[in-house]
Write a structure and sequence with these properties.
mainly alpha, 72% helix, membrane, transmembrane helix, transmembrane
């Protein structure tokens, strides 16, 4: 079964790329919910650049999809951990307290 050959360097690259992709996606979503246009557009652009690496690599071998899922989980978990540590800001357009 040729689909089971795993190159560890490629697998690590896919994990890192998808972790970074999900972290950037969380930052993009945060910028959108805060209605920060420039920030949201910038994060969105960066998100597509990162995701292309993982897609190109794991479409050659279905096994890398599992590594992409692990990276995705890592990226979302740690970026939300980072966002929780930041001081809370009121949504854009809300009246100051």
């Amino acid at each position: 079964m040729s689909g089971l050959h795993i190159d560890l360097l490629t697998a690590a690259g896919v994990v890192l790329a998808t972790a970074a992709t999900d972290a950037v996606y969380v930052m993009f979503t945060s910028a959108v919910s805060a209605r920060r246009r420039f920030s949201a557009a910038s994060w969105s652009s960066f998100w597509y650049l990162l995701s292309s690496y993982a897609v190109i690599n794991y479409t050659e071998n279905w096994v890398y999809v599992c590594f992409a899922a692990v990276g995705s989980w890592i990226g979302a978990f740690f970026s939300l951990t980072f966002l929780r540590a930041l001081p809370s800001r009121p949504p854009a357009g809300s009246a100051p307290e």
